[in-house]
Design brief:
This protein is of the alpha+beta class and 105 residues long. The protein contains 1 helix and 5 strands; from the N terminus they run H-E-E-E-E-E. It has one domain: SH3 type barrels, CATH 2.30.30.
C-alpha cells in the first residue's frame, strides 16, 4: 500500500503522523517486552554503566519499558532489557553455609 502524501491535507498529514508515532511506540514496547521475557524476576543480571563499569544485581520488577534491578548495595536501577546480560551468582547472593551442620564420620 502506498500513500501519496502530496495529496493529503494538513489535518490528514497530522492524523497520519499520530498514527505512525503510535505504531512506532507499540513496536518498541513489543520489542522491550520480548527482551524482558528472556529474564525472570529474581535472576542475577549485569549491565554496563558509563564511568562506573559493570553493575550487577537482582531483577526485581518489570516496568512498561524497562526492568528494575537492585544491586547488592541496595541501589535501584531502571534498565532497558536490551542492556542486560545474565550474571553469575555472586557470593553475596548465595545463602550462607550453616555453621550448625555436624559432619559424622
Amino acid at each position: 500500500m502506498t500513500i501519496d502524501i502530496d495529496r493529503l491535507s494538513e489535518p490528514d498529514l497530522i492524523d497520519l503522523n499520530h498514527r505512525i508515532v503510535e505504531r512506532l511506540r507499540l513496536l518498541q514496547q513489543m520489542r522491550a517486552h520480548k527482551q524482558m521475557l528472556e529474564f525472570r524476576i529474581g535472576d542475577r543480571v549485569a549491565f554496563q554503566v558509563d564511568g562506573r563499569g559493570k553493575v550487577e544485581g537482582m531483577l526485581t520488577r518489570y516496568n512498561r519499558k524497562s526492568v528494575t534491578v537492585i544491586t547488592d548495595d541496595g541501589h535501584h536501577w531502571n534498565v532497558a532489557p536490551a542492556l542486560l546480560s545474565r550474571a553469575a551468582a555472586s557470593a553475596a547472593a548465595k545463602p550462607p553455609a550453616s555453621s550448625n551442620v555436624i559432619s559424622l564420620k
